[in-house]
Fold each of these.
Amino acid sequence: MIFKIIKIDDQSRLKKLEKIKKSFLSKKKDDISLFHFQEVKKDMFHTVFHLNDEYLMGTKKIGNQTSVPFSQYINFFFFKNSRFCLIENTDTVYFNEIKNYISSKTHEQIQEYTLNKNDFSNIVNRLGGFIKKIEYSNGEDDYEKGFSSIEDFNVINKDYFIDYVSLNNNEYFISIYKSGKVSVSNSDEDYLIDFAEVIVDELENHSI
């Protein structure tokens, strides 16, 4: 699954989502509804949003002739004691719609977060594992290095700017981007909850 890290000012406002009536059916085209809301761990909340969309089919000359209803479900993790949250990022359009929906329902400003050197260091060292690839630069030239250790990563992160790192952790592949996007090749519920908690914990407790 792919997530985008966001940052808010007042996390307590996100609890307003709990008061929204849950539904798996949207009432109008392109509408968004709250499908699921649950406290999965103490002070950690998981919500699922349902987006109503359509597949359009037709030809180049005739145009769209048929539409088929399509449902997209987007996961969102937030925490009572953290300003950082994770929104599933399956598509840029869906991501922006969910971000705007959350903002409108909670009256909270949402900022997309970019990782810095400190963030990369804390997250990678906390996750551990074996580095598959590092992409980095000195501000002018771009470089990449494959099959490295955590120690190699720390040396590079000290002297360069990290753009991307992928690692193997407990047989799962994790990718972390400077843009604030994180992905993991695992859809197991318990693993995803722990993964989200680790990312947010490191950002909240150690971010500059």
Amino acid sequence: MRLLVILAVVAALCAAGFLLLPAGRALIGDTRDKLGGAAAVTPTLVTASAEVPSHPATDTTDGLSNHYWGAPGAGASVTFTFGEPFRLVDVIVTNGASTSPQQYAREARALRMDLEMTSADGTVHHEALSLSDKPGPQTVPTGVDDVVAVRLVLRSVTGLAPGRHVAVAEVEFFRRT
């Protein structure tokens, strides 16, 4: 009887370990992300489904917060492609036409975006982003392995009116060091 109880406990521990292994790996990865450093990653290609004249999608990665990607409205997307896979730990989005409070609201801004991160094996990880309607960078922690492409899709915007377009100043990507 004692042997059967010991075997049942061992079998239960093995089953629990097998079932909890993915959660354990995710917990370890998230802990390493928080304790480790982060380094910027620059995309090798930036493309958009739509852009307004004089405000190309490449302005999202130029390092200047007073240049921006101009999109005609909700539904437009921008795709960032990277040269080699990496663990994406953070995405920083600088919304609006500028970080200057006076210039920020001169164009429409994104309120909600879909963040689609594609891994090297083709798996797409989705995350819905809710952005504050305020100037300045907004950090989104991600923690996704082997990222080769990131796509941002504008879902909800504010301030869109005739003669205005949606502005996204900067999008920055960080990997774990």
Amino acid sequence: MRKALARSTTALLGVLLLASCTSGGSEARSANPCGIGTASQEEALVREVLGSQDFTTKDYGSTSGFVDEAKRALPVLRPEKHTFYTNVCGYGTADERGAGGMTFLAGWLLRTSGAPSSPGDVPYALNGVRGVASDSRSTLLVPCDMPGDLREQSQKVWLTGDLTFGQSRPATDQAAKDRRMTLAYLMTRRVADALGCENKPLEKAPVVKPAPTP
């Protein structure tokens, strides 16, 4: 009886661990923001955005390296140096039209600075988080309360998440921009988890809708 109970408990634990891994929990996301899982929402969106079932992944550095760089940059942001960003991940494919792909960047932007904008931008409100999409870029501005000594300074900046698109097909319709904005949200959530944002600003599943026009 005890052996049977032990086997049942072990089996249940295995199922729970497997579910945790395949569901893309915060620990998995923070361990490797670029390593999107098979059959995940991120993987499906990358394929849709690139228009290809096959793509390559480029990690521009280790997760710990990015976190250390972002933490060092945060205290030195000033009006004259109001932004910091760096490449985090790249996803690409090659076809007869040449190389196409996208790059995900993350960093900081002082809240007193105006967010970059261009004609034709579509504003978004995602679970209380601001976003904007154009034909070639999707950007999120996220409040991220960092722990410890960085908390006060972190409340003066936005955590930024950007997807930039190179030679991939432009987002010419609203549905394409919605998909790109959803992907930007999910990728920025991975960075927020890695940084340890205490307010967990992107914990909810993305509800992506263009913001009402004033």
